[in-house]
Amino acid sequence: MNDTLLSLRDVACGYHDQTVVHHLNLNLRAGDIGCLLGSSGCGKTTTLRAIAGFEPVQDGEIRLAGERLSAAGHTLAPEKRRIGMVFQDYALFPHLSVADNVAFGIRKHPDKARITAELLELVNLASLGKRYPHELSGGQQQRVSLARALAPEPLLLLLDEPFSNLDGELRRRLSHEVRDILKSRGTSAILVTHDQEEAFAVCDQVGVFNQGRLEQWDTPYNLYHEPQTPFVASFIGQGYFIRGEMQSPDTVQTELGVIRGNRAYSWQSGSAVDVLLRPDDIVHAPDSPLQAQVLGKTFLGAATLYRLRLPTGTQLESVFPSQTDYAPGQQVGIRVAAAHLVLYPASAAAPANQEDGVRRFSGAA
Ligand SMILES: Nc1ncnc2c1ncn2[C@@H]1O[C@H](COP(=O)(O)OP(=O)(O)OP(=O)(O)O)[C@@H](O)[C@H]1O
């Protein structure tokens, strides 16, 4: 594709002779914000460091704007890549003022005063240029760090868990603000996070890592509604599986009745499949003949998550409006409302029973 800015082709990287990330492929379009999402130790930071040029690649290649940055035996130095970095711990120079921190990467630029002032304005710190980092809050320090990274006009910005030292509301607010700032300048970026909500709020494309492998690189919508693997299905949002049997390409027979979706599968009728369900696929239907017993519930504010058991013993999760108030042990009527029918072959998917009794995918090797 001709608007691809960053491309990773079959990249393997790691430390010494150990490979941490395998066969990684992704394309980031110019102006897009991508995300590397996954649980601790899955290889997100290692990938980011390889893109930055801090680690060599063992196989494959990394290209930025058509230029080959990394391949086996070739690593262009980080400072020659036109890539900016924002770190989790801000990494500001403590002995430099806010303005001097921002100007650091453009010290020799004739227009550095104007550019610095504009960037401080952009990140809402126009009045704090003379302060020192220790005189700022965490959120303000991260804005300085962002302004400093943007000053040399990088082709690509890398953000390594930039909000994880901040809490709750500030974290949410700053992440939205950073997206707006990057979009307003058309800056392309890759963000590393293990926080799904943050990935979805900030990024256009999200890559889900599982033990050193990128399982899917896609839009948040597709990851949720069209997960390509059982791992992604379980990892993104809340998902669980029930057994089913194919009846026709878009219809599956389950113990919840016949479920018909909006896409066709080529498996033979009669094949055993695992059907992905999400808590919002099972809805409260007081008059429904399909009944389940309440096992437990979690009040979420606007809604309540119920854990339910069918007469066969299968356990489900369902989100009911928060006005409903059933006690454990009570019977409730439910109905399936799943337009996106997501199926996996029963044997290959290998979902596992977890302690709470709901069948999710087990990532264990
Ligand atoms: N400098 C290093 N030398 C050797 N192994 C390392 C080094 N840094 C990381 N690793 C290993 O590489 C694997 C992936 O680590 P990485 O930091 O990329 O994970 P991550 O997904 O970013 O995790 P986290 O969210 O915890 O930061 C881990 O098993 C880790 O122990």
Automatic annotation (TrEMBL):
GO biological process assignments: quaternary ammonium group transport
Residue ranges occupied by any ABC transporter domain in the UniProt entry: 6-236
GO CC terms, sorted: ATP-binding cassette (ABC) transporter complex
MF terms in GO: ATP binding; ATP hydrolysis activity; transmembrane transporter activity
Gene3D superfamilies per UniProt: P-loop containing nucleotide triphosphate hydrolases
Keyword flag GTP-binding: no
PROSITE patterns: ABC_TRANSPORTER_1, ABC_TRANSPORTER_2
InterPro entries in alphabetical order: AAA+_ATPase, ABC_SmlMolc_Importer, ABC_transporter-like_ATP-bd, ABC_transporter-like_CS, Mo/tungstate-bd_C_term_dom, P-loop_NTPase, Transp-assoc_OB_typ2
Alphabetically ordered keywords of this record: ATP-binding, Nucleotide-binding, Transport
Superkingdom, taxonomy of origin: Bacteria
UniProt name for this protein: ABC transporter ATP-binding protein
Species this protein is from: Pseudomonas mangiferae
Taxonomic classification: Bacteria, Pseudomonadati, Pseudomonadota, Gammaproteobacteria, Pseudomonadales
